[in-house]
Amino acid sequence: TLADMIPEVRPPKVAPPKDYTGIVRVRVIQARNLHGENATGTLNPFVRLRVGKVKKQTVAMWSASGEPRWDTTFDVRVYHDVGLGQMEITVWDTDLFAEDNLIG
């Protein structure tokens, strides 16, 4: 059933240490209308997100349509003094023979 396929999202079990402002939950669901392709004519995109010094990324998803679906949730710790209020989200294409390419 559809309910079995949707992952259950639970709050973090551990309270943030005193030096954290809190935890931001980010859910990366899907990208649409991605452009750019590698030598094979397809995309292998992944999402990177950064809050201050904390970095997270999804797994690369093969996509011939340019509309990959990750449906991944990250809990990102936010510190008082680093990157408060700033989040950078970028989409990259994995390339096995060269550097990954920024596509969004």
Describe this structure in words.
It is a single chain. By secondary structure, the protein is mostly beta strands. It is 4% helix and 39% strand. The chain has one helix and six strands, in the order H-E-E-E-E-E-E. The strands form two sheets. Strands 3-2-5-6 form a four-stranded antiparallel beta sheet, with no helix packed on it. A two-stranded antiparallel sheet has the order 1-4. A hairpin with a 7-residue loop joins strand 5 and strand 6 (101-102). The relative contact order is 0.28. The model is unreliable at 1-5 (pLDDT under 50).
- Rg, Cα atoms, Å: 16 Å
Portion of residues in beta strands equals 35-45%
Rounded mean pLDDT is 77
User: What is the first-to-last residue Cα distance?
Assistant: 33 Å
Q: How would you sum up the global shape?
A: elongated
Strand order of the largest sheet: 3-2-5-6
Low-confidence stretches: 1-5
Helix content: under 10%
The main sheet comes to: 4 strands, antiparallel
Number of strands: 6
Structural class: mainly beta
Q: Number of helical runs? A: 1
H/E series: HEEEEEE
